[in-house]
């Protein structure tokens, strides 16, 4: 008898369907992580705190490799993220780092964005990413995109 280990995989969903898809996956017994943050959305007549996915159209599923096809039982799942022609596997430690960084209370405002240039190395330790550096990819207006190489993420910072 062989025992299969569960791995974290990244799946793409249809746009704006992350939370709904996560609930549907949980209903069929698949462990799923949808990283969200609370942001204040403003409409013409009101403001409201809304849980917004951190990684648009992406979810993490914890599943055995031979059961990966089960995610397609849910209508909004598009495909898996692939790396070198294989479904990308995310380590438990990377998922934990992502969870810690999202729960980190200080935010991402210690650098003045206008001083950042593409290629600049940013220390993200104070932002909840222990001993991790990112590289500035783009800077536009009050926004900055930082690549977190060890995790393969692109992080958007705003001032």
TrEMBL record:
Entry's Gene Ontology BP terms: DNA-templated transcription elongation; transcription antitermination
Keywords from the UniProt entry: Transcription, Transcription antitermination, Transcription regulation
InterPro entries: NGN-like_dom, NGN_dom_sf, NusG-like
One Pfam family named in its UniProt record: NusG
Domain NusG-like N-terminal, residue spans: 5-102
Keyword Hydrolase (UniProt): no
NCBIfam families, per database record: antiterm_UpxY (NF033644)
PANTHER family documented for this protein: KOW MOTIF FAMILY PROTEIN, EXPRESSED (PTHR30265:SF4), RHO-INTERACTING TRANSCRIPTION TERMINATION FACTOR NUSG (PTHR30265)
Protein name: Transcription antitermination factor NusG
């Amino acid at each position: 008898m062989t025992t299969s280990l569960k791995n974290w995989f990244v799946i793409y969903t249809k746009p704006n369907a992350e939370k709904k898809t996560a609930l549907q996956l949980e209903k069929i017994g698949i462990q799923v992580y949808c990283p969200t943050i609370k942001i204040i959305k403003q409409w013409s007549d009101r403001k409201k705190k809304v849980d917004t996915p951190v990684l648009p159209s992406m979810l993490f599923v914890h599943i055995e490799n031979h059961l990966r096809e089960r995610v397609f039982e849910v209508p909004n799942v598009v495909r898996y993220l692939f790396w070198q022609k294989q479904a990308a596997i995310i380590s438990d430690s990377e998922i934990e780092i992502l969870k810690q960084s999202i729960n980190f209370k200080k935010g991402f405002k210690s650098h003045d964005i206008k001083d950042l240039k593409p290629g600049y190395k940013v220390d993200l330790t104070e932002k909840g990413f222990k001993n991790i550096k990112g590289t500035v990819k783009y800077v536009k207006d009050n926004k900055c995109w930082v690549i977190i190489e060890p995790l393969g993420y692109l992080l958007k910072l705003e001032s």
